Amino acid sequence: MKRSTIGLSAIVFATTLISAPAFSQEADKAPTDSLVLYSSHPIEMVDYYISAFEAENPGVKVDLITGGTGELLSRIKAEAGRPLGDVLWGGGAHTGSSAPELFNAYDSPVLSEIFPEFLDPAGFNAPPGAFTMVIVYNKDLVSDEDAPKTWAELADAKWSGKIQYANPASSSSSYAALVAWKEIGGWELVEAMAKNMTIVDSSSGPFTAVGNGEVELGVAYEEGAHRWLASGKVGIVYPSDGVTLLAEGLFRMKDGPNEANADKFADFILSQPQQQALVDNFPGRRPTNVNVSFPDSMPSANDLNVLPYPADAVTDQADWLAKWKDIMINTR
Fold this sequence. Notes:
D-Maltodextrin-Binding Protein, domain 2; six-stranded mixed sheet; globular
């Protein structure tokens, strides 16, 4: 496996490709021995799946380009006239539909094994995983009985200054929590909760602070919360008043040099064995395949009060974040 990390210079170089003449794609339809994967996920997990994919497809070698989802998407846009990559593994389900000119539609028999909640209405995403937001609490500071069971309970004055939450303007996972709160109780509930919260910039801040005993409660993304379970120091609550479940993104690039292998990789990641491996090897990662056995600590989608993710949470995100900024100012 060859690995590279994208940086500013790579993006600048890629932008020069916009004006480059498009080359013939006919040869790209023939079988190849390569796959170029762009990914923003943790290296440990990506390396695991690259090794497994190469073992199942002898002769195929994967080149990995890492970076933030935004960086990688910028690179793909810059390379649109002459695609160099095959698969983008990162971002959310909406990433593909936000730039449909860059990706191929995905239709595969394996989609019949995927929870309906995670299927992409726009038809681009091969949903490799999903996430939700949870309440995490420190067991030395909060008893299991006293831990909040709903989001709305975080508005109780007894939790003033005892909740840590990452700024949704800098954390996409925290934004998903904000969407859930607005769906449950509107901006009135959001403001009541915000009064009790300490706001941090990093999405890893809340579960880390709770795990270290620095704060009683945190609003955390699911995987991060589960990282602390083995320590015995934290408890996790899936709020009964509702959660949003969001699919992660995996997209096959249009006219990529190795389209057949891109198709194989998408099918491979969604297959039951690899989805089970996700659960077994990476605690807190949520599979999308219905045939996976979930650990006791992670309820399946069927066992949660799943809220619909409103379309205007995507189209009006800038307005929602502006409203959040006003609330922040008013509640500090």
